[in-house]
Specification:
Blueprint (H helix, E strand, L loop, with lengths): L4 H10 L7 H14 L1 H12 L5 E2 L6 E2 L5 H4 L4 E8 L2 H9 L5 E5 L17 H10 L4 E4 L5 H16 L3 E4 L15 H9 L2 E2 L1
Parallel strand pairs: 3-4, 3-5, 5-6
Antiparallel strand pairs: 1-2, 6-7
Length: about 200
């Protein structure tokens, strides 16, 4: 069936989301058009505000300011830096409510086959942070995938060149699992039981 260009464009726009195929996108669009036009309008306003969201200049987390709320919080322990792969991982660690340090968000993991190397992960910025000398421990909270382990190994070498202690979150996180899908209790225990690399 052929829809109007505006409806077709909206269906195609929803398909950019992970896991959303043509039928799911079509159902979402029809729901907004048939039952929740105000929700659709709010969604459009929120999407329009995405231009104001950038990256924290220190940790690379999403923010609308120069520094994110975590980096700007003077109560956070600047001696601890937890390295995570994505903003969703920051939320997962924060939900455990057992970590009071800062973060560095890689926005991915090393994957030479996909063309993702140290430059794509912003490791020059992490190197500069470590060179400042305030960090005493780097907590590696990358996933337990092959790429996550390779990234952790690379980061351990970087930290050790600066004389920074390196630890890895404890293995309570299932092998091959992603942090954003781990419950807060398991993740909290994994951080509490981290081990030196």
């Amino acid at each position: 069936m052929v829809f109007t260009p505006a409806v077709d464009r909206l269906i195609q726009a929803f398909r950019c989301l992970p896991g959303v195929g043509p039928r799911s996108a079509q159902r979402m669009v029809f729901h907004l058009l048939e039952r929740d036009r105000e929700g659709g309008a709010e969604l459009a306003r929120a999407l329009g505000a995405l231009d104001s969201v950038g990256h924290c200049k220190r940790c690379r987390l999403f923010t609308e300011a120069e520094l994110c709320a975590i980096c700007a919080d003077q109560r956070r322990d600047a001696k601890l830096i937890c390295i995570v792969e994505s903003p969703a991982d920051v939320l997962a660690v924060e939900s455990a409510a057992s970590y009071g340090g800062r973060y560095f968000v890689l926005m991915g993991k090393l994957s030479p086959l996909d063309g993702i190397g140290p430059d794509e992960l912003g490791l020059d910025a992490l190197d500069a942070i470590l060179a400042e000398g305030s960090a005493e421990e780097l907590i590696l909270a990358t996933s337990a995938t092959v790429e996550g382990e390779a990234t952790a190994h690379y980061l351990a070498g970087l930290a050790q060149r600066h004389g920074v202690t390196v630890s890895r979150i404890a293995q309570g996180v299932p092998r091959g699992g992603e942090l954003e899908f781990i419950d807060g209790g398991t993740l909290g225990q994994a951080i509490a039981d981290r081990k030196r690399v």
